[in-house]
Amino acid sequence: MAPPHRCPLCRQTFFCGRGHVYSRKHQRQLKGALERFLPQVEAARKAVRAVQVERYVPDHERCCWCLCCGSEVRKHLSHGNLTVLHGALLEHLASPEHKKATNKFWWENKAEVQMKEMFLISPQDYARFKKSMVKSLDSYEEKEDEVIKEMAAHIREVEQSRQEVVRSVLEDLPGVGNIHSGAIPPWMIQDEEHSSGNQQIGPSYEEFLKEMEKQKLKKLPPDRVGANFDHTSSTTAGWLPSFGRVWNNGRRWQSRHQFKTEVATRTKQQSHKEKS
What we know:
three-stranded antiparallel beta sheet; two-stranded antiparallel ribbon; 8% strand; elongated
């Protein structure tokens, strides 16, 4: 019996030996995998003729899956704040390791021989790419320097125009000096209304204590004993307050019954006044 064979493209194990690679299913899976990998290789081939240099962004750290090597490789080549698009993938496709893995992949999967060269980069093409890359990096840095110089010149012009406008406005103020003439800046001059230092801002401490006492009294029940007592009225030494009829004669339940009767009568009278 033939030893089991694991096919990574079909993701199945077969016991018919190497004969599986000639099946229609395997060839269909192989063709689909190569078609998915081919656009990335073609984009890298275009970079050989026209090198693209961009400012580095985190998105340039993306990787792609090399079908022949069975591993992830970086797509772009970054150094510092610059990135050469498809530089890392071209370097991988031109490496001897990739060429060896591609030959093995084509032999094991019985792919079309004519397509193998499409997934390889010759050393001559990669050398031409490196020369173009150096020139593109130099020209990009020159353009960046020119842009920086132009921005610096523009900023200087804007700052000079702003200073001229401020100087002209300050000079037009009647009877008031400016910092260019040696006078005290306006923001350092104290206003007359705040120069005395004796003006009190906000309520006094006594008023604050009175307001706090009012707020405490508002939280107490309105029908409490002594709530309506007039503290400003004059009383004699023999005056005694009436705390819940404790000074009345008789039993406690009698005074309690009398108190409830008076409260009910007072409530009826108040409701009658409201209706009228």
